[in-house]
Amino acid sequence: MAAGVAAWLPFARAAAIGWMPVANLPMPVAPAGKNKRQDEMIILNVSGRRFETWRNTLDRYPDTLLGSSEKEFFYNEETKEYFFDRDPDVFRSVLNFYRTGKLHYPRYECISSYDEELAFFGIISEIIGDCCYEEYKDRKRENAERLMDDQEDNKDAKPPNMTCRETMWRAFENPHTSTMALVFYYVTGFFIAVSVITNVVETVPCGTSPNQKEVPCGERYTVAFFCMDTACVMIFTVEYLMRLFAAPSRYRFMRSVMSIIDVVAILPYYIGLVMTDNEDVSGAFVTLRVFRVFRIFKFSRHSQGLRILGYTLKSCASELGFLLFSLTMAIIIFATVMFYAEKGSSSSKFTSIPASFWYTIVTMTTLGYGDMVPKTIAGKIFGSICSLSGVLVIALPVPVIVSNFSRIYHQNQRADKRRAQKMQKARLARIRISKQGTSNAFLHSKRNGLFSEAPEFTSSTEEDQRLNKSTSLLESQHHHLLHCLEKTTNHEFVDQQYYQQSYLEAGLQNYPSRSPSLSSRDGVSGTCCTRRSKKQHAPLQNASGPAHMQPLTQVHAHPRGLQELSTIHIQPLSTSRSSLNMRVDEPASLNCQSSQITTAIISIPTPPVTTSDGDAHLRAGPAHQNVVKVSAL
Amino acid sequence: MEVDGMEVFAIAVVVAMFVVVLKQFGVWEPLSLEGKICDGEFELSMVRHQPEGLDQLQAQTQFTRKELQSLYRGFKNECPSGLVDEETFKTIYSQFFPQGDATTYAHFLFNAFDMDRNGSIRFEDFVIGLSVLLRGSVTEKLRWAFNLYDINKDGLITKEEMMSIMTSIYDMMGRYTLPSVRDDSPYEHVERFFQKMDRNRDGVVTIDEFIETCQKDENIMASMQLFENVI
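^ inputs. structure came back:
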């Protein structure tokens, strides 16, 4: 129950007097307030800072440290106060939770210290109010990730007894592990750089040939460049083969991006060897050597900035996608408009809409090459609108990307937003489960036989112990209230499961065999397989399962119904079914635990009721049809 | 000068943008500004109520000073403004009956407590009602119960009124009960009630019939004393 609502329990109980004249059964005895003391203040001394509050305030949450008798361990006899050697700042939030019923997470507080305090005082963190919950979860996630990162860094410590293969793989992945790895690393890096520079220099015009034509260096010093290329490719090939050998999962390695780039980098050379005379094709493959440059990205593993940039782009995929999409939309719109605007003018460069795309892109990105220019007035007007909107469209997603970058830089989330939603659902489910404790507590305590008017049906010894388990006064008062309501209406609260089971039971009864001559016995008892009655009732052959097949003859109910109600103990599912209900014509071996029954609702007209009581008004009453549930197996 | 279709369109666009810019400066359509003021207003003044002094309340009720203090603390905690409106009341009361729907009964209860029918319960109403329920004589309690059942406060309980009350009580039980609440359970209960209470069989129960019958019934008399020690 919520904190403040507990204060209204006396009111609810007092208002229960409104049920009394209507009820037909005597009410259960109220739980005696144990040594009814006046509301007193208690002092909580937390590391020297004294907090004072009412005792009732703390009693609102009996499953926490402060609300239960656990705090007695911290009682200091001399100073007559409860001393806790904990953080007083966080304790403020904890105490406010008792006072207001809402737990807040202060932003300046460290997440792990807060968690520890909550755990100490027995408060689950899911109770944190919605106002602070997002912040709390974010911080917690950050913390968890940081811990994971730290753990990963610690993995560099070399475990003993690694095979040659594993050593090699570690050396490849982490150059700092050994000197050899470092040497290898730098050598490959050097050759990457050499190969890139070679490619670049190859294309530079290198002096003139006798026939006054500029010749690129590649053609002038063909042999030299060829040797250089061969050397680089040999190194790369060896490196690739070694990585392939060392990889723990060769298939996965071959599928990875870097290895594909490696292959693509060395392939042109071999293809060039094969077909030396066909210059066009080999030229195209030479260009592919540019991919070798991407090997430089492997440096990014040890450069924080590059790594963050990569993560940013990856995480901003949605924003980048949005940017692209909006740009495309705008381009198409403006290209169409410009095309039709410029259609009238002669010698217009805007020959088609796709041709206008180029103009639109150049204008929107504010490049403005000037190779295509509108000449009509309308074209100029729309062209200016186009350039203005281009600035806007590009400027809008950029801050998002920037903020993403800074967010990742501060080591924020890598998980999907979807996982956050799942956690939200899980959290609500957890809160719902913990709140269900209220209604379940009443049923649970009923199960334990907390009735006081059926002493002869005391439960077995283990249940006796449960009886003696102290439920708080508040709870017992609340249960008493619910119990009074049950008595007033002469119905009982049950769990949803049992309710469905009772219908399952009832559905398997054979109705036609029921004789219409009802005995004067009241058909209060249902035939739920979880019901146990030690008293053998005379065969209530007409008291079919759902008691609403016939009207309750409540006039007789007073002495008998009371007894019947008190004999009903709802057993937990685990008990044996041997002592189950007394119905003889019961179909054997009901699987009461199965809950996947589809029920169909059919209406059966009320059979004529012949009670010996001659309750004429009863007969007249239920002229409308009753609803019966029949299980369709 | 011939104006092409596209040029017309272009000029229309330019004019529209001009209008937008003017609107931005607030030059265009100044009338629309006044309408906006009303939207921006937020609700002033949360109605707040301070109760009468402790001494007066002590005179009007049967509670001691300490009890009044403790009652007020609980009351104020849940309703800082000092007034309980019907919605809050329903919410609070429903929390005690998680399995059923307590809102209808809470509505009747609210009307029973809200004696001056102004739509909200002040602390005085609350405490006076509680005083009757917890510290009043049995007759006073019965009178209170009668007042609760008599929805239109005309001094008579008709079958319809009782039916509404009974239905609302059964609603609080919810769906999952054993035996299950049938559609006519409240009706039967009402019939029984009237059979017991309505002496002259005129279809209504007056306050005298009610009190007289209740005083003769031991169960009811016993249960009236049940909640003496709630506070």
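Chain A touches chain B through 83 residues (CB under 8 Å). Residues 317-342 of chain A form the longest helix (26 residues).
thumbs up if we can close this ticket
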